[in-house]
Amino acid sequence: MKTGVIDVENGALRIGEILIPATATFDETLLLAPDKDAVRDVQTGYKWIYIRGVPIEERSFHFALCFYQGRLYRAEIGFGKKGSGKVDRSGKEKPWSWDDWSEEEELRTKRRYNRWLDKTIGKKRKFPWGRVAARYDLKSASSSIEIFYVNKYLDALFGKNVSQDYLSSGKSA
C-alpha cells in the first residue's frame, strides 16, 4: 500500500483504523462505521455511509461510501473544510460558510486533490479493481476524490460489463 488511504493493489480504503475492502457490502461496512446514524438510503437501491472528521496525515478527511444493491459501488473522499481560513478578533478560526465558496477555490481544491493523489498513489488512475479521479462537480458545487469500483455483481445484474464500460468511458458518476 503506497498510502494509508487507498490501496492501489486491491482498492481497499483505510479510514483511520477501519479497513474497507473493495468487495465490502453495506452491512459489513455499517458494522465498522463509527456513526451508525450517518447513513442515507435513497430508496432506489443506493445507500450511503458517511464517515467524517477522520484525522489522517495532519488533515481532517471525510468519506462518502456509496453502495448499490448492497455492494460497494463508489467512494468520495475529501479533505475536511475545517474553517474559512479567516480569523475573528479573538484569533479563533471562523467556521466555513457558503459566503466563502467560489468556483475558483473549488478548482484549486481539485488541483490539490490531484497533487495528493500523485503523491500517494502515483500518476496511474485506472486499475483492475476500478478508477480514481479528482473531480469538480458543477451541480453540487464541490470537488472530491472519486473512486469507482469494478463490480462483478452489478455486471451480472445488468447482464453486461457495466463496470468496464464505465471505466473505459472516463465519465464521472
Chain oligomer state:
single chain
Cα(first) to Cα(last) distance is 26 Å
* Global mean pLDDT: 83
Describe the biggest sheet?
7 strands, antiparallel
Summarize the structure.
With 173 residues, the chain is α+β, with helices and mostly antiparallel strands. The protein has helices spanning 26-32, 103-121, 152-158, 162-169, and strands spanning 13-15, 18-20, 39-41, 46-56, 59-68, 71-79, 126-127, 130-137, 142-149. It has a seven-stranded antiparallel β-sheet with strand order 3-4-5-6-9-8-7. The protein has a two-stranded antiparallel ribbon with strand order 1-2.
Explain the overall architecture:
The protein is α+β, with helices and mostly antiparallel strands and 173 residues long. Helices cover 24% and strands 33% of the residues. It is built from four helices and nine strands; from the N terminus they run E-E-H-E-E-E-E-H-E-E-E-H-H. It has helices at residues 26-32, 103-121, 152-158, 162-169, and strands at residues 13-15, 18-20, 39-41, 46-56, 59-68, 71-79, 126-127, 130-137, 142-149. The strands form two sheets. A seven-stranded antiparallel beta sheet has the order 3-4-5-6-9-8-7. A two-stranded antiparallel ribbon has the order 1-2. The mean pLDDT is 83.
